[in-house]
Amino acid sequence: MSFWMGVASAQHARGGRDGGFAQLGHGKHIAVKSLRKGDWIVYYSPPVCW
């Protein structure tokens, strides 16, 4: 089992959660080829600084 970290806006992370999907690596296939069944993905959503 491996753990992966994605960085995304909170809105995008919630959209994936609610839609039952995850996105990593800006859609590049190489970013997800290493994923295996049972792996975990954790998202970090940095706060917006104005």
Task: Give me a quick take on this structure.
Helices cover about 30% and strands about 20% of the residues.
What is the ordering of alpha helices and beta strands? EHHE
**Count of DSSP helices?**
2
Proportion in β-strands: 15-25%
State the major sheet: 2 strands, parallel
Helix content: 25-40%
Compute the number of strand runs: 2
Overall form: globular
- Measured distance between first and last alpha carbons: 38 Å
Cross-sheet strand order for the largest sheet: 1-2
Q: Summarize model confidence as the mean pLDDT.
A: 85
Low-confidence stretches: none
Describe it:
There is one protein chain. By secondary structure, this protein is an alpha+beta fold. It has one domain. The chain contains two helices and two strands. The protein has a two-stranded parallel ribbon. It starts with a strand and ends in a 6-residue tail after the last strand. The mean pLDDT is 85.
What's the layout of helices and strands?
Layout: E1 3-7, H1 10-19, H2 29-32, E2 40-44
Parallel strand pairs: 1-2
Brief descriptors of the model:
50 residues; 2 helices; 2 strands
